[in-house]
Amino acid sequence: MINLTKGQSINLKKEAPGGLQRVHLGLGWDVAKPKGLFGRFAAPESIDLDASAALFDAQGNHTDTVWFRQLQSKDGSIKHSGDNLTGAGDGDDEVITVDLSRIPGSVHQIVLAVSSFRGQNFAKVENAFCRVVNADNKQEVARYNLSATGNHTSVIIGKLQLVSGEWTFKALGEMTNGRTIQDIASDIRRVL
Description:
44% strand, TerD, Tellurium resistance protein TerZ, Stress/Tellurium_Resist
């Protein structure tokens, strides 16, 4: 398993015998514990983070979006596990599954983002991460810890992209502000 740093890429073909065909992009987070004298008596609030994926062609034209309002790409190659409204529990809170063998030839980039739907900032989030998992054997291939807390309400986590005909995952960690993937569309364009 590889611990990714911002800007680092991995080639998905080289991460499994015969290359990865299906990947889970798992997102997990915890609610930050309240701080201060009275913090230990306060109940932590729930945080509704939403994982989303935006698809782009070779020219950078947006072709589709998978998010809590559309849980599957139009062609069925990308599926969202559904909306987790709290971040409670261990492991992945939301998962986007990508069947690389079924991605249309016109799609060259898939940008993964997470947004705070209620507008709570990432100062209220801890232990946030994105995992790249082989969907066929459930083996974790790479992990990217989103340790940057702050006043931002969205993070462009990373992107799957075709490089010389092979799919790679690149960790981005770009902080931005918006409650949905639609709100951060112009920020996503900057990372294409």
